[in-house]
Design brief:
This protein is α+β, with helices and mostly antiparallel strands. The chain folds into two domains: 163 residues, Diaminopimelate Epimerase, Chain A, domain 1; 147 residues, Diaminopimelate Epimerase, Chain A, domain 1 (Roll). Helix content is 21%, strand content 37%. The chain has six helices and 19 strands. The chain is globular. The chain binds ligand LBFN2T5F. Pathway: Amino-acid biosynthesis; L-lysine biosynthesis via DAP pathway; DL-2,6-diaminopimelate from LL-2,6-diaminopimelate: step 1/1. Catalyzes the stereoinversion of LL-2,6-diaminopimelate (L,L-DAP) to meso-diaminopimelate (meso-DAP), a precursor of L-lysine and an essential component of the bacterial peptidoglycan.
Length: 324
């Protein structure tokens, strides 16, 4: 039997698999197939999820397989849960985790509430260069609060990678339910002349000093409860465009449909930006699957056992408390 976990950060949910638990590690096509099968919102396990996180306790690392089987270079909410998993395995409270483009620092943080463990993770490298997303056919090398009437007239867009690609647009609170949000997300993540690899689209509402709300249409997934890299990218753009409200080296509260995280913005002496993302790392279920099932083309759900950890109840109490 192999143990998987179902986890979430701000209710951006994942299955977490440790290759070190397997006699034969999963191949990339097996991971992609498993991600698509487990995460399906209608036919997947435990109501599906937004992706599959693959780690290896022997070589601290994280790979992120989106729900559609594509691979993302980073996942901020996912990294917090991988950090907790590896921390509990090794007894270490601070260490680095290898991701596609960078070795990122992670640390155990104070619990957000009783039974709501939290971790802080480094989000970097940050780039505003066109090639880092990439984007094309927009007659510019940088999008920084730029009008793009060919996308949505009247909206201003900022593009940055952290290092996965993000587009940030500030909207009014009353626009949050507009169909334009999903339409644009879908358009830019389908066949389009501007973002050939797709892009995560973050819709941001400024709530006040050091406070924003972010709703994200995620590449490879669709709307999610939260996107860690998206909230980090949005925090940086918030501070760059509104220096009176968003500050470096000071916590920013980032509310999202799944809860709330904190971000802290940093600028190194060489001018490079990086962000610390602090938030919950919740394990909702322990799952037992025979290893041969993970390698097989079809999963037999009758052979899978799941156990509720009861952490979700505590997390929901924490979210309820945010409303008071
Ligand atoms: N939810 C994630 C980001 C996941 C990756 C994204 N869908 C992509 O393809 O870049 C997060 O918490 O950062």
């Amino acid at each position: 039997m192999t143990e998987l976990l179902k986890v979430h950060g701000s209710q951006n949910s994942f299955f977490l698999l440790d290759q070190a638990n397997l006699a034969v590690p999963l191949t990339d096509p097996e991971m992609q197939k498993l991600a698509r099968t487990l995460t399906d919102r209608e036919t997947g396990l435990l109501g599906g999820a937004d992706g599959l996180l693959v780690t290896d306790a022997n070589h601290p690392q994280m790979r992120v397989i989106n729900a559609d089987g594509s691979e993302a270079s980073m996942c901020g909410n996912g990294l917090r849960t991988v950090a907790r998993y590896l921390s509990e395995k090794t007894g270490k409270d601070q260490f680095k985790v290898k991701t596609m483009y960078a070795n990122l620092e992670v640390r155990k943080a104070d619990n957000l509430a009783e039974n709501v463990p939290a971790f802080g993770v480094e989000i970097s490298p940050v780039s505003f260069k066109k090639e880092s997303l990439p984007f094309d056919n927009l007659d510019t090398d940088h999008l920084l609060n730029t009008e793009l009437p060919q996308l949505v007239p009247g909206w201003r867009f900022t593009a940055l990678s952290v290092p996965n690609p993000h587009l940030v647009v500030f909207i009014k609170e009353e626009e949050l339910d507009s169909p334009k949000l999903g339409e644009l997300g879908q358009y830019l993540n389908g066949d389009n002349p501007y973002f050939p690899d797709g892009v995560n689209v973050n819709y941001v509402v400024v709530k006040g000093d050091s406070q924003i709300f972010v709703k994200t249409f995620e590449r490879g997934v669709g709307f999610t409860n939260a996107c860690g890299t998206g909230m980090s990218a949005s925090s940086l753009v918030f501070a760059l465009l509104n220096p009176d409200l968003g500050h470096f080296e000071k916590e920013i509260s980032v509310y999202n449909p799944g809860g709330m995280v904190k971000t802290i913005l940093h600028k190194n002496d060489d001018g490079a930006y990086w962000i610390e993302l602090v938030g919950n790392a919740t394990f909702t279920h322990e799952i037992e699957i025979p290893e041969e099932q993970l390698h097989s083309a079809e999963l037999d759900f009758d052979q899978i056992k799941t156990r509720d950890t009861y952490e979700q109840e505590s997390y929901l109490n924490f979210v309820e408390g945010l409303k008071k």
